[in-house]
Specification:
The protein has a single domain, classed as Rossmann fold. Helices cover 40% and strands 17% of the residues. It contains six helices and five strands, in the order H-E-H-E-H-E-H-E-H-E-H.
Length: 143
């Protein structure tokens, strides 16, 4: 299902024209797989994590340009992970993805919210909404 993160990162960072990398985080592997296929089909590099600890390790180790973060993850939850990401690299957009309503306090540390019930086209639109009009720009501090 998931590409080896080191292979994704190596292939994407060796080129001056590397493709944008999205870190997709959800404890549900079926959701991760569907999201991976949609994002890869849209031309993004995808790293997948099944919990907050794994997400933070990948975020710190690889050139991530955007994070799709499940809000309702266990240990640590999406809100804690979003705060850590923003403290680490404030310019990396974070989209909270949730099946339920996201509390106002969490909204302060994410760039927008998408629901799991929405179709993949809507998710791609949200990604476009939080990035430049030209599409997701490769994070220059990580290139």
């Amino acid at each position: 299902m998931r590409e080896d993160p080191s292979e994704v990162a190596r292939g994407l960072t060796e080129s001056k024209n590397r493709i944008p990398v999205i870190l997709s985080v959800d404890e549900n592997s079926a959701i991760l797989y569907k999201r991976y296929k949609v994002l890869q089909g849209a031309g993004y590099g995808v790293l997948s994590a099944t919990d907050g600890e794994q997400a933070m390790s990948m975020f710190e180790a690889y050139p991530v340009d955007l994070v799709l973060l499940d809000y309702a993850m266990p240990c640590p939850d999406g809100e804690i992970v979003a705060h850590k990401i923003k403290r680490c690299k404030q310019n990396v957009p974070v989209i909270a993805v949730s099946a339920s309503r996201v509390p106002e306090a969490t909204l302060a540390c994410v760039d927008c919210v998408a629901t799991k019930k929405q179709d993949p086209v809507f998710l791609l639109k949200k990604i476009g909404d939080v990035t430049s009009p030209k599409g997701l720009q490769v994070n220059s501090e990580q290139s």
